[in-house]
Amino acid sequence: MILCITEKPSVGADIAKILGAGVRRDGYFEGDTYCVTWTFGHLCELKDPSDYTSEWKRWSLSALPMIPPRFGIKLKDDKGIQHQFEVIEKLIKRCEKVINCGDAGQEGELIQRWVMQKAGCDKPVERLWISSLTDESIREGFNHLRPEKELEPLYTAGLCRAIGDWILGINATRLYTLKYADRSYNESRSNILSVGRVQTPTLALVVNRQKEIENFVPTTTFELRTNYRDVVFTSNVKAFKTEEEGQAKLQEAAESEFEVTSVVKKKAKEAPPKLFDLTSLQVEANKKYGLSADETLKTIQALYEKKLTTYPRVDTTYLTDDMYPKCGPILNSLTHYQAILQEIRGKKLKKSNKVFDNSKVTDHHAIIPTGQPPQMLSKPEWQVYDLIAKRFISVFFPDCVYDQTQIKGKAGKIEFKASGKRIDQPGWKAVYEKDTPGTAEEKPEKEEDKEPSTLPDFKEGERGPHKPFLGKKTTTPPSYYTEGTLLKAMETAGASVEDDELREALKANGIGRPSTRAAIIEILYKRGYIRKQGKSLRATEAGIDLIGLIREELLKSAKLTGIWEGRLRAIERGDYSAPEFIAQLKVMINDITLSVLRDPSNRRITQVAPEEQKKKKKTSSTKK
How many CA atoms lie within 13 A of 166 on its CB side? Predict the structure, then answer.
């Protein structure tokens, strides 16, 4: 008998149907050749400190840092989990071979291997590795099973991540709580200061941005401009600090007619946006529909399990070359988008190296539709599906071609310029001109998102009256983070990046993984460190105090955390030593512990849970 272990019962049912394991038993399906069982996500976890020694059960500064000589795993304390584990354990003893059918990613590898280790599996193991749950993909996956050894670096990276989070999270949380938490506040509950390898630098991003905004001092300058034929031209004169300073130049410009000295027109192209990885999908869903990172992750996971989209927890925006022949049939199957697809009917399907590049894909390609017809979708599911489908369609459309015009002119000796843009051939932008059933209406563009206005026809040498004026310019602070922009900042370790190519390059040292970033944001909400105000994220008093309290840059620097993430990715590729990574973390937590213990100050911080914050607000508003 061959045993297949999936990560969820629903996936187990899909695989059992294809393998002919049609008899339902307690916790598994059975057939002539195959048995199919499942976990419920994480059945196992790293042991708690108290599992190693009773001395670590009580929180004590003298016990820190706690570093076990060897890390171990345990079964979660849940009756349902324990029962399912017993089922898996018995089936492993009965079988001749195991096929690991967990989610094809780092976390999925860790989940399944821990369960097999705990069950004492000594049978040969192969790996099912698929990017979608369609019947065709599952069959193809079983025809190309991978050796377990091939995925060893992926498991090692996941194990290092879990151990690293344990070393830093558990030790730093106890350290800061014991040293700095105000235990006089609300003795009925523990006042825990949660600190983590990813959550703390993420919180620091929000806090630092908020302080930058609060401390921002606007400056106002006055720029010499002129209005000629209803087009505003900007001068090359340096901006003035006051209107009075600009009066002389204003007068000088007013004394002469405006003369057009140069008209330059050129064709330019804009390529379609890249396909979605998980983070860019979360960013777009937040921007267009206000979906939180967690809502988008749950929605795309549901679409994946409904066989409508490919594997979601990916960090690449590329497809492999072997996907190219499959793209035509997928496009033909997108029945809700046939009107849009008429534009490219009968033409050879475009193949761009900005879409197809084997070197940019490791385990999974970008998120695309599978071609299965969508039915009975919720509103968020339609919205996310529509984003993915249109993005996929758009990459096969021609580039958008537009006319870029730059006009230069002068009034006396003062030079001015203006530019404009006019779309000549919409290309891929035509994909977004039509609504699709089931999706919400898009909100109007913000002013800064609108295309530059089209200029009237100007001729070199023409002259005429104009109206010079001093345009007021006031600097503005950066915007508060939204969940979308925070995800971008996490992906690029705090760097502000709009360029797609540069964003791709910075991903290697982003903080967190695509699959965990939404959970990190949720943890910050739960801990009461951040809150939402409209779409904006604001740090709470406790969040600001905690970041102010932490003087150790190792804990709160997005760049440093990004370097560790880069090393974890190198471990995943087999290019970096796992023992070296763990050894560095041990040195780091030792250094942090010594630094905190040596702090002679008597600083204290009160952590207020989200529900208590709400009570405080209600009490405050009642008093008013």
Answer: 19
pLDDT, one tens digit per residue, over 324-372 is 999 999 999 999 999 999 999 989 999 999 999 999 988 799 999 999 9
Cα–Cα–Cα angle for 75, 79, 81, rounded to 5 degrees: 50
Cα–Cα distance, 34 to 422 (Å, whole number): 62
d(CA 318, CA 435): 26
**Rounded Cα distance, 117 and 590, in Å:** 30
What pLDDT score does 190 carry?
Answer: 57
pTM of the model: 0.87
User: Residue 115: how many CB atoms within 10 A of its CB?
Assistant: 26
User: b/e map of 268-290 (b: 16 or more CB within 10 Å)?
Assistant: eeebbebbbbbbbbbbbbbbbbb
pLDDT grade for 499, boundaries at 50, 70 and 90: low
Q: Which residue has the tokens 């530019």?
A: 419
Q: Is residue 319 a contact partner of residue 355, using CB atoms and an 8 Å limit?
A: yes
| Residue type for position 392 | F
223 Cβ contact partners less than 8 Å away, ≥ 6 residues apart: 234, 235, 239, 240, 470, 471, 472, 473
Name the catalytic one among 228, 311, 481, 576.
Answer: 311
Say if CB 614 and CB 532 are below 8 A apart.
Answer: no
pLDDT at 440: 45
Name the token pair of 534: 């409209």
Handedness of CA 474, 477, 482, 488 (dihedral sign): positive
- Is the confidence at residue 444, as pLDDT, over 90? no
pLDDT, residue 561, reads 87
State yes or no: is 311 an active-site residue: yes
* Residue 512, CA distances (Å) to 164, 488, 492, 501 in order: 12, 11, 10, 20
